């Protein structure tokens, strides 16, 4: 069962790396929340606690979108110098986090006996 959890998490992490590059917020939110809940259910506390702040940040960003906006990133204001730097910094941090998780899931899944 644990191997299935880590294989699913590994595949989901690959999808999250792809989604974080293209700023697809809702699929990224759903995928990351699923992995976080899955780690909680399978009692992998360290990985759950590692994923919890990022999942919470994704939910917070989605909830704080002003009404009338198409998404988290307003296309009319994204080229403002300060906002573009901020969004790129957030994207690089998420990409680094997802890469870390990718290798952690890969190692954790292969480290379990069959």
Task: Write up what this structure looks like.
InterPro entries: Cornichon. It is a multi-pass membrane protein. With 114 residues, the protein is mainly α. Helix content is 75%, strand content 0%. The chain has one domain. The chain is elongated, with a radius of gyration of 15 Å.
Q: How are the elements arranged and paired?
A:
Layout: H1 2-21, H2 25-41, H3 45-63, H4 81-110
Helix pairs in contact: 1-2, 1-4, 2-3
Short description:
With 114 residues, the protein is an all-alpha fold.
The shape is: elongated
Number of helices: 4
How many beta strands in the DSSP annotation? 0
Largest sheet: none
Q: Beta fraction of the residues? A: under 5%
Residue runs with pLDDT of under 50 for 5 or more positions: none
The residue-averaged pLDDT reads 84
Distance between the termini: 9 Å
Number of domains: 1
Q: What percent of the residues sit in helical stretches (DSSP H or I)? A: over 70%
C-alpha-based Rg, rounded: 15 Å
Derived from helix and strand composition plus strand pairing, the structural class reads: mainly alpha
How do the SSEs run, as a string of H and E? HHHH
Family: Belongs to the cornichon family.
InterPro entries: Cornichon
Protein name: Cornichon family member 4
Pfam families: Cornichon
How would you describe this structure in keywords?
114 residues; mainly alpha; transmembrane helix; membrane; Cornichon
